[in-house]
Amino acid sequence: MLESRLSGLPLEQILGWAEFCGLRMVVAPGVFVPRRRTEFLVLQAAALAAPAAVLVDLCCGSGAVGAALLATIPHGQLYSVDIDPAAVRCAVTNVAAVSGRVFKGDLFAPLPAELRGRVDILVANAPYVPTEAIAMMPPEARLYEARTALDGGGDGLDVQRRVVAGALVWLAPGGHLLIETSERQAAESAAIFSRNGLTPQVIHCPDLNATVVIGSVAD
Fold it and tell me: pTM for the whole thing?
């Protein structure tokens, strides 16, 4: 284990788990390690969710966001999605612990059709690192996490655009889309929400250096 850490492998991948929102989440080699700042995304989503909310977690990675969210909403229904097979295997373990469901595929594509127009809370920690900035990331992320979990395209917002563009079809009246982004990208993220018919709100947490854009649907 010490040799693996000295080689640069993230500690969480060596141990096989990461602490997130007070819970132990299974994390395998190559899988994105949930960041503490992303707990702010969970807190914001939990504050908006009704006791029996329908929840969707896109780009779920290890499933940490959805699992932590459902742990606070015991009567909710959770559907988590990721395109990476290794991440999906971790998510199945983490999400099953809170009685959620996991799907492998690209964003909305694998979700059951009957969820259209019924999703109360849609969360996405989509990759938002600009392609050229990946080379400047710490080696733990750059070398040992899946590129698809990091690379957000030229300005870092390509995947966000796809999520926001498809959200209205799935959100229920009065529903909310919450996406983690950076403080620098937040204004453009909010503009993307507006262009796609969602009313945006940007919330920043200095303590966690976390920024979340919330898009709301009219009742």
Answer: 0.95
